[in-house]
Amino acid sequence: MRIVFLFLTATGLGLLAGCAAPPGPNEVAFPSPGPRGGVCNAQPAQAVIGKQGTASVVEQARVLSGAAMARVLRQGQAVTLEFNAERLNLIVDAQGRITAVRCG
């Protein structure tokens, strides 16, 4: 009985060890955003203020700003407070119309 227990324990540990392979030498913990964009500049994206916050308008604003990513926020919505220089924030009102454009 003890041999069976030891065998099953060793087999289980071997299987778990296979799942925990170390990262390769070229892997990084936080990958770069890639070729989509870079540092945000909200000024050119001000052109979308007053428009509906549709997916195509959000993408248009992201491209205009040069940001790597964009997010839509409702007024008063709880958000994370970390500053991200590569992110465009589009603030929309209750009707979904863009009222402000900011980086961060």
Structural commentary:
This protein has 104 residues and is an alpha+beta fold. The protein has a domain at 42-103: 2-Layer Sandwich (Trypsin Inhibitor V, Chain A). The chain has helices spanning 2-19, 42-45, 55-65; strands spanning 69-74, 87-92, 98-103. A 3-stranded mixed β-sheet has the order 1-2-3. Strand 2 (87-92) and strand 3 (98-103) form a beta hairpin. The N and C termini lie far apart (61 Å). Pfam families: Inhibitor_I78. This is Peptidase inhibitor I78 family protein. Keywords: Signal. Residues 1-20 form the signal peptide.
Provide tags for this entry.
3 helices, alpha+beta, 104 residues, 3 strands, three-stranded mixed sheet, Trypsin Inhibitor V, Chain A, 32% helix
CATH architecture label of one domain: 2-Layer Sandwich
CATH homologous superfamily of one domain? Trypsin Inhibitor V, subunit A
Alpha carbon gap, first and last residue: 61 Å
CATH topology category name of one domain: Trypsin Inhibitor V, Chain A
The shape, in one word, is elongated
Tally of strands: 3
Report the uncertain regions: 26-35
Strand order of the largest sheet: 1-2-3
CATH class of one domain: Alpha Beta
Average pLDDT metric: 80
Order of helices and strands: HHHEEE
State Rg.
23 Å
How many helical elements? Answer: 3
Please state roughly what percent of the residues sit in beta strands, choosing from under 5%, 5-15%, 15-25%, 25-35%, 35-45% or over 45%: 15-25%
Structural class: alpha+beta
The description of the largest β-sheet is:
3 strands, mixed
Residue share in helices?
25-40%
Protein name: Peptidase inhibitor I78 family protein
Pfam family, one: Inhibitor_I78
Organism: Extensimonas vulgaris
Keywords: Signal
